[in-house]
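ingest -> fold -> write
write: protein_1
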Amino acid sequence: MAATQTVEVTPRHRTGHARPGSRGVLRWLGPMGPALLMLLLFVAGPILWCFYSAFTNTALTGTGAGNVQFVGLANFQRMLADPQLVPSIILTIVFVVGSAIVGQNLLGLLIATLMQNRGRVIRAIVGTVVLGAWVLPEIVAAFIWYAFLNPEGTLNMVFKGMGLPAQNWLYTTPMLAVILANIWRGTAFSMLVYSAALSEVPPEVQESAEVDGASVFQRFWYITLPLVRRQIMTNLMLITLQTLSVFTLIFAMTAGGPGTKSQTLPLLMYQQAFKFSDLAYGMAIAFVLLAVGGIFSAIYMRVLKPEI
């Protein structure tokens, strides 16, 4: 008589996969623990402190500096009545759309497209020129454009040489001046993103479309753009968030003026928090800036949703 052998079937044998128990969590926390700690200290911590401070009377000097008290929604109610808030939000949106979405994004895509299949020398020269502006500190870029656009600057000297009247560009067109400066400085990032994306487009697809009689524009519009759509949305999100926080460039060129004609939300926040020493109100304005960034991100994610 053959002996029968029973095999105990454990939950692990039934499912075929081991559930991550406490030991698995500990293995995950080992390498990830330092990174999580750094995120909590330097990202989540300041955000939580700003959130708390926005509901207090925290100030750099005076009563709010030594005796911080909870004031509820007082800072946000004050913000609704602030005549500078809405113009600053509009100027921030204009600055982001003009310099990041239209300027850096389209110019970076154009340069990356034109540099495709070009010689090594041309790509090296163009890449060096564009990247040279990107690696400059923001304050240096601001002074370069200030020297270029001020009444005694290079642009007016060219205009005088052509018999045209000189202009005080930083006074008459302050937003256009800071938008052009930010495009000049930040286009290199978009160019690098799109250069990497375009190199991943299969050449045989382009060749097949060319054989079928598709023009250069049709190949770019119907083949290249859909294939790099994810990279376009990623680039838009990154340069938008980066542009929202631009402060030094605008402050050094126009200081938000003349008047408040180039005062974006970061400059308004700086003015309230450090010039008028009202830290709590500055924190409340910071959350408006965070909301603007969230709206832009939600739009991009909505556009990207069909591709996920």
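write: protein_2
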Amino acid sequence: MKRSIPLIFAFVVGVIVLLSEFIPHRPFNLIVSTLENWFMIISGFAILLGQISLIRMNSYKIANRLPDWQYYLAGLISFALMLSFGILWGMQETPGLLGTGEEIVNKLGMKPFDYLFNHAYMPLSATLFSLLAFFIASAAYRAFIIRGFESNLLMITAVIVIIGRTSIGTMLTGWLPESLQFWHIPNLADFIMEYPNSAAQRAILISAGLGIVGSSLRIILGIERSYLGGD
């Protein structure tokens, strides 16, 4: 019974949502609209649970002085600061409990939440992604290093696209005549990105869509029960 009710509920809701895509009329559209509102409410509680879990896990590691506990402390402090500033003075056009904080805005040029977001979060994110770019380039080199026809093709394609997106590509092949314009490295990079890359991306998206359909049918029919805690 503990598992049967969620399975029945998932089946009924799944079938109704599925039918609403083919019959966008009463009562299916009204039911689906209500279900979407329920989803938003449940998502809000899920975010709240996530925040509580974040505080509990980080507090436990800090209290027990687990390895690298200082980073968890920094994370908790950052979380508390952003949450406090957002609640007290809001963000962008949204006011907080203390209004819009005009005095602070006059000093900082923007609200505290937006100031921390633009001057702390954004630079840190840019730094992280910059580091990731080097890791990705290193991983790509190890993956594409000469091992076979496919890896050679990937390596050559990657080099053409990378060079073609910079001014180096124009410098290297800018001297070619107009009749050989296609062989300009920037044009080759555009061709690769527009045709082979787009075709591959669409194939991946179609495969992902079919996978989602398969997973949804497994959940609706009760074959997939991992969301109940395993079977």
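write: annotation protein_2
The longest helix spans residues 28-63.
DSSP finds nine helices and no strands in the chain.
pipeline exit 0
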